[in-house]
Prior knowledge:
Blueprint: H1 15-41, H2 47-54, H3 58-67, H4 78-123, H5 133-147, H6 153-166, H7 173-190, H8 192-204, H9 206-225, H10 234-256, H11 260-267
Amino acid sequence: MTGNGTAAPKNERVDWVDYAKGICIVMVVMMHSVLGVQKAADQAGFMNLVVEFARPFRMPDFFLISGLFLPLVINRDWRTYLDRKVGHFAYFYVLWVTIQFGFKAPSFAAEVGWPGVAHLYLLSFIDPFGTLWFIYLLPVFFVVIKATRQIPSWIIWSIAALLEMKHISTGWTLIDEFASRFVYIYSGYLFANYVFALSNRARAYPILALAGLALWAVADAGLVYTGASEWPVISLALGLAGACAIITIGTLLAKMQWLDVLRYFGEH
Length: 268
């Protein structure tokens, strides 16, 4: 199992990737909106069922897709690699965490004082702040993947899978989310060719793809609503299966050129 540079054309956008990323963005926005309304209203609505259905695969899909194009740049020297895969995200994290703190500083100061605000701001560079955690984690993942290239990939993947199944909860976002998500971005990197092959088959056999999606939806819903989706092994299987399902959906939407607004979200 090794990543290589044959997963996708270097200079072309892949339509279904944009659709799949767009679906991820919509699901994340939906989650924050629904949970925010529920908290304000102090009751759950029917949309909570949709949010819960998407919980096993919402972020796994995002990270798996983020790993798909790593084979194209993983062989570059460290300086170029860090410039492409770390500097970009580090810049946006620093920018947005500063903007958020600018707006939230007065409310934080009312609770912990201005020295406490400064402490929280500095702490955000050690442990990611709020909803920006995924921007923080991406460059961390990219560095770890390149730094561990000399270790057999099956060892790295096995350790990553065990971390996900342990459901680690230390209270530190960096540690907890790394343990929960690394296996997915590493799977995208490691199995990129298989993911692109899955998309090609879905495009070639749409009826069969729809049948597979129907079976997946029933299985995901059943495991989520019975509480089994959080069990070790099952959580990992649902994350990977759900990511493949979103990739399949993205492929079918791209094939039919439906819901182009999703592709717009994915491109931006």
